[in-house]
Amino acid sequence: MASRGAVLSLQNGMGSFEDIVRGLLQDNSKGVSVLEGVTDMGGLIVEPGVVRHTGHGHTILQDLKNPICAKICEVFTKVTPLSPFTSLSYILLYKAGLHTELSTDIAGPKWLKLIVNSAINPITAILGVPNGEILKVPHIVRLMRAITEVISSKKTSHPLKNM
């Protein structure tokens, strides 16, 4: 990536942001602004390259005061807490009508999204139905609750168990 570029990661899954940072480090991309976020907007792939917006939600951008971001600040000398890229990203998302927040710790929201996705996505894929349809079937709702309870239990390690 060219010097002074910018990356905003709103990827599903855990570790995506770290993979991006590792890739930039391997590419020796100094001066690149890197920002992580998480969103719970709903979307449906209608066809390749076409996504229909199906649900409003929240978008949270990682404030660069986070310890992981502090390390990135050491590596990417142009990145500082609340860099112009962070501010611009926030303003653009907000102006686009997306409920957007800045947070110093998005680990909790990322885990919550992972837990919710792990209860919904496999069921909708197996049944071949949209997300909203599964909420109309009581035994499926009970199954989703059971899945989220197992994942949220003390038997797993994640930051939500103390929330």
Verbal overview:
The chain is an alpha/beta fold and 163 residues long. The chain has two domains: 6-104, NAD(P)-binding Rossmann-like Domain (Rossmann fold, 3-Layer(aba) Sandwich); 108-162, no CATH class. It has helices at 16-26, 67-75, 84-95, 107-127, 131-134, 138-152, and strands at 6-9, 33-39, 42-47, 50-55, 58-62, 99-103. The chain has a four-stranded mixed sheet with strand order 1-2-5-6, sandwiched between helices. β1, α1 (16-26) and β2 form a beta-alpha-beta unit. α4 runs antiparallel to α6. The longest helix is centred in the last third of the chain and has 21 residues, at 107-127. The N and C termini lie far apart (38 Å). The model is unreliable at 76-80 (pLDDT under 50).
List the keywords:
6 helices; 4-stranded mixed β-sheet; alpha/beta; two-stranded antiparallel ribbon; 163 residues; 44% helix; globular; Rossmann fold
What's the structural domain tally? 2
Strand order of the largest sheet: 1-2-5-6
**Count of individual helical segments:** 6
Q: What string gives the helices and strands in order? A: EHEEEEHHEHHH
Mean pLDDT: 76
By DSSP, the count of extended strands is: 6
Rg for CA atoms? 18 Å
- CATH H level, superfamily name of the largest domain: NAD(P)-binding Rossmann-like Domain
CATH architecture of the largest domain: 3-Layer(aba) Sandwich
Structural class: alpha/beta
CATH fold name of the largest domain: Rossmann fold
Largest sheet: 4 strands, mixed
First CA to last CA: what distance? 38 Å
How large a portion of the residues is in β-strands, by DSSP E? 15-25%
Shape type = globular
Task: List low-pLDDT spans.
Answer: 76-80
Helix content: 40-55%
Oligomer classification: single chain
CATH class bucket of the largest domain: Alpha Beta
